[in-house]
Amino acid sequence: MTSTELSSRRRQTRQRLVTAATELFAEKSVEATSVEELCERAGFTRGAFYSNFDSKEELCLEIVRERGDLLVETTGRALAMIPEAPVGGTRLDQIIAKVVDVVDLGSTLDDNWVLVRGELRLYAYRNPSFRPALLEAERRAIRLTVPALTQTLQRQRAGLLVSIEQLLLTLDAYCERTRMDAILSGRPDDHSWRHGMERLIRAVIVLPTDDPEGAGE
Predict the structure, then answer these.
(1) CA–CA gap between residue 147 and residue 153 (Å, rounded)
(2) How far apart are CA 196 and CA 178, in angstroms?
(3) Burial code of 8-18, b = ≥16 C-beta within 10 A, e = fewer?
(4) Among residues 114, 134, 116, 107, which one has the least CA distance to residue 21?
(5) Pick from 101, 95, 97, 100: nearest CA to 81
(6) Other Cβ atoms within 10 Å of 75 Cβ, number
(7) For the chain, does the N or the C end have fewer beta carbons within 10 angstroms?
(8) Are 150 and 164 in contact (CB under 8 A)?
(9) CATH top-level class for 1-53?
(10) How far apart are CA 132 and CA 77, in angstroms?
(11) Per residue in 32-47, is it b (16+ CB within 10 Å) or e — as a string?
(12) Number of other residues whose CB lies within 10 A of the CB of residue 164
């Protein structure tokens, strides 16, 4: 077996363990899920698990990092929807709606992740030693996202009423709460959160004062 094949096989093994973990964590919590159950769900032995992860907590961090990478990728695709030339007025509203569409299709807000994320945070709350690592893994995605957002705002000569970090935190909290409400109310396919997200984004964007309201139309 070549090194490339071995690397590909290792990635597949890790991905199957991550998938099994997200399913089990959503079903029964992090603490109630054993390594043995993870291996059984993924179809591997304990040896396969420990050849990829030192502990269940390391697997938890891999889940967060993987989700963070997906968020960064989705954000990049969303920002690619914004044209080079400055926009404003109605045109800006239309672009924001398209950006939110991309975020929605990017699978960063699926029901399973909303539940798993809550379980990971509860686990960190009950296990203080895990808190720093979890917070660092979550903040990593924000650090990777900020530069692209900053460049986009500069290109558009636009500003924000809050910092980019505060905006991301606000949108994150809003999306997580509305998605959880939809799950609890039995409407998991409810995408009404998108309209609220569009309004939140538009409310904090400050356009150049020398641009007419209809710029870019």
Answers:
(1) 10
(2) 10
(3) eeeeebbebbb
(4) 116
(5) 95
(6) 23
(7) N
(8) yes
(9) mainly alpha
(10) 30
(11) ebebeebbebbebeee
(12) 17
pTM above 0.85, yes or no: no
Instruction: Write down the residue that tokens 């597949």 correspond to.
Output: 12
DSSP 128: G
> 3-state class of 206 per DSSP?
strand
Q: Mind listing the pLDDT tens digit for each residue in 98-148?
A: 888 877 766 556 778 889 999 999 999 999 999 999 999 999 988 989 998
DSSP string, 112-144: HHHHHHHHHHHHHHH-GGGHHHHHHHHHHHHHH
Region class of 43: left (phi > 0), else alpha (psi between -120 and 50), else beta: left
Pick the residue with more confidence: 2 or 199?
199
